[in-house]
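Board notes (copied after class):
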Amino acid sequence: MTEANNFYEKLVVEEEELVMKVQLCEGYQWTILTYLSNQGEIAKEIGEEILTIVHTIEQDLRTELLHLRVEKELLGGMMKRQQA
């Protein structure tokens, strides 16, 4: 049971890190948008490309987070059943 608890705690830490990375991507997107609004049309094309790349990274992180949460919830349910 200790091994399952340790693994669950590892998943909790990984989840927190992924959430922070997603938030970081969101912050970068807003920063880029703010910068673009100050630059005008000249920066539009490259700005959209950069935003798309950051958005793709964010989506990949969100997918990883989703899979981690599924694994964490399944493990948590198994641990609860074993305690009962």
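Comment from the instructor: The CA atoms of residues 18 and 64 lie 8 Å apart. Helices lie at 2-39, 44-83.
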